[in-house]
Structures are given as C-alpha cells and as structure tokens.
C-alpha cells in the first residue's frame, strides 16, 4: 500500500507541478476561465499555479504527502469554479471550445482526481 501511495503520489505530484507551471507559461489561457465575479484573473492564475506547484512538490515527499493531498482537495474544489464558468458561459480554454461531452469527461476526470487525492490524504 505504501509503495502504491508513493508511486501514485509521484505521478499526481508531477502532474500538478506541470499544470502549475503552465499557469506561468500561458497565463492568458487560464485568465479567460476565471469567473468575472472574482476579478483580478492574473492574481488567481498565478496564485493557483503557485499552489499547484508547491503542493505537487509536497506529494513527492512522503512526510508531506498527506497534508499536501488534503490541501489539493480544497484547491481543486475551489478551482472547480473556473471549470463551471467554462461550462456555463461556453468559454474556450486555450482556443478550444469543449462540447457537452468534453465538459462531462473533464468532470469525471476531476472526480477521479479528487478520489485519488482523498486516498493519498488517507481520508479513506
């Protein structure tokens, strides 16, 4: 079980680091999906990217994995506002407009990610 947690922790951690870095490489793509009511899209883009990188690194470190996974659960839930905004307002991400099926697939992936983070956070 610990080996599985370590392997999955590294895979998910690297994915979060990669996605977090993308927030800095192409902020415009992420800015466009920040809900207008939040304002300051660059702030939210850079802040979420920074948290994704930091917490992704935390998933790589066994001693920090549980707390990092728990924090990522909260972050993913908060960032769901951007996904919901994309769906409700038919906003393309990086020039790509998702179909209803595309949004559904994205939602399923997000649910699986949350379950993996719950497992890594030793919540179940």
What is the gyration radius calculated from CA atoms?
15 Å
Based on Cα principal axes, name the global outline.
globular
Give the class from helix and strand content and strand pairing.
mainly alpha
Which range does the strand content fall in? under 5%
Q: Largest sheet at a glance? A: none
Helix content: over 70%
Distance between the termini: 13 Å
Oligomer: single chain
The number of helices is 5
Structure, described:
The chain is mainly alpha-helical. The protein has one domain (2-120). 78% of the residues lie in helices and 0% in strands. The chain is built from five helices and no strands. Helix 1 packs antiparallel against helix 3. The longest helix is centred in the middle third of the chain and has 27 residues, at 62-88.
Identify the notable features of this structure and list them briefly.
124 residues; mainly alpha; 5 helices
Secondary structure layout:
Layout lengths: L1 H24 L1 H5 L9 H20 L1 H27 L11 H21 L4
Helix pairs in contact: 1-3, 3-4, 4-5
């Amino acid at each position: 079980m610990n080996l599985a947690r370590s392997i999955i922790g590294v895979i998910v951690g690297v994915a979060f680091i990669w996605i977090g870095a993308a927030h800095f490489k192409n902020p415009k793509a992420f800015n466009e999906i920040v809900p207008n009511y939040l304002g300051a899209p660059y702030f939210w883009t850079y802040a979420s990217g920074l948290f994704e990188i930091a917490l992704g690194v935390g998933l790589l470190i066994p001693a920090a994995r549980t707390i990092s996974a728990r924090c990522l659960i909260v972050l993913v839930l908060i960032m769901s506002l951007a996904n919901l905004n994309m769906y409700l307002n038919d906003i393309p991400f990086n020039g790509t407009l998702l179909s209803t099926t595309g949004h559904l697939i994205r939602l399923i992936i997000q649910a699986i990610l949350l379950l993996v983070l719950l497992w890594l956070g030793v919540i179940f």
